[in-house]
Amino acid sequence: MHAPCVRVPTDAGERTRKRLADADLVDETLDIAVADGSLYIPVSDREAVPDDLAVVEHDVPERETQTTPADLLGFEPSYERLGDVVILDEDDPARAARIADAVVESDVRARSVVDRASKVKGETRVRDWDVLAFEGDEPASRSPTATVHREYGCEFALDIADVYFSPRLATERHRVVQQVGEGEHAFDMFAGVGPYAIPMAKAGAEVVATDINETAIDYLRENAARNGVADRITAYAGDVRDLVSSTAGGERADGGREAVETYDGWADRLVMNLPHTADEFLDTAVALAGEECVLHYYDIQHEDDRYAPGEAAIRAAAEPEYEVSVETRHTVRSYAPHEYNVCLDVRLRRA
To answer: Strand pairing partners for 236?
Structure first.
């Protein structure tokens, strides 16, 4: 079948295959093909392939020996992959254990299999996890819930026991990042480990990122260095409201230093991915906004009225100081029965 492949000379084949495998980009359902002195390595995401590698369409055979969990179970289980951690969401412990065993016995690359044991909770938005399977040899100090996730050419180290991260939002994050221009001032108000901040910096923006979770900010700084953008990201652990002059406190949550730098009127772009309570921070967003600013506002609302509550809240906070125009009304995903996670892309122009 025809598929996107990285084409390399045969003498560079194994080195390139390993490089792509380390980035979780090799399409494991297809085999590598050889033709005219070149190897054709099938890839799962052509947009995430490094620019120095050539991606072409080529005919490659399907891999006949691939064993999936469904082959072993007789049904298609639901799971997510986050790096080398496989995540289940099963209420029945026996069923969860059976799926975990099948994942381990299959050809799915998994260092551990975990099951959600609680809802997202607390100010830092973390969960409890049941570890169902764990190959803990390397490195010995790394927990079953720690991993490195790769997404659109970026790498994110994280531990899902300590930070919030959803692989389901990769496409949405990429949608926003594609709008970022060179030299922009981008502010991620609830940054986590950096899945918006780091690709925005890679797109050429100067980024300020905050999060109340100090561990998440530690990971964000590590990930900024990992992705080569540490010089374009300033990260603060603490409440974003401390970074505008009207509400700034006397101490910084990331180290107890006196005085906090404030960013009034600094931002050309604001990301507000805290959908349950983002409306409580709109006054801060308006204070951060520059003369013209694009706001990516995430919300969760009933299917009958997905966008109007968020738009009304933004107008109440920004008008008349800013002219408000909604550029995109976008449904990200279903969140719960009759409820949707949505995003409003809103342009603010100082009146």
So the answer is: 210
| Largest separation between any pair of C-alpha atoms in the chain | 67
Spans of all domains in the chain:
2-59, 69-144, 153-350
Rounded CA separation 209/221 (Å): 10
Give me the sheet containing 267-272, strands edge to edge.
233-237, 206-211, 185-188, 267-272, 289-302, 339-350, 322-336
Q: What pLDDT shows up at residue 139? A: 52
- The pLDDT tens digits of the residues spanning 158-187 come to 999 999 999 889 999 999 999 999 999 999
| Topology classification of domain 153-350 | Rossmann fold (3.40.50)
- Tell me how far apart the alpha carbons of residues 197 and 187 are, in angstroms, rounded to a whole number: 8
Given a contact cutoff of 8 angstroms between Cβ atoms, the answer to whether 212 and 220 are in contact is no
Q: At residue 46, what are phi and psi to the nearest 5 degrees?
A: -65, -30
State in words which class domain 2-59 has.
Answer: alpha beta
What fold does the segment set 69-144 form as a domain?
A: GMP Synthetase; Chain A, domain 3 (3.30.300)
Asked if 321 contacts 295 with a C-beta cutoff of 8 angstroms, the reply is: no
Answer yes or no: are the C-beta atoms of 57 and 7 closer than 8 Å.
Answer: no
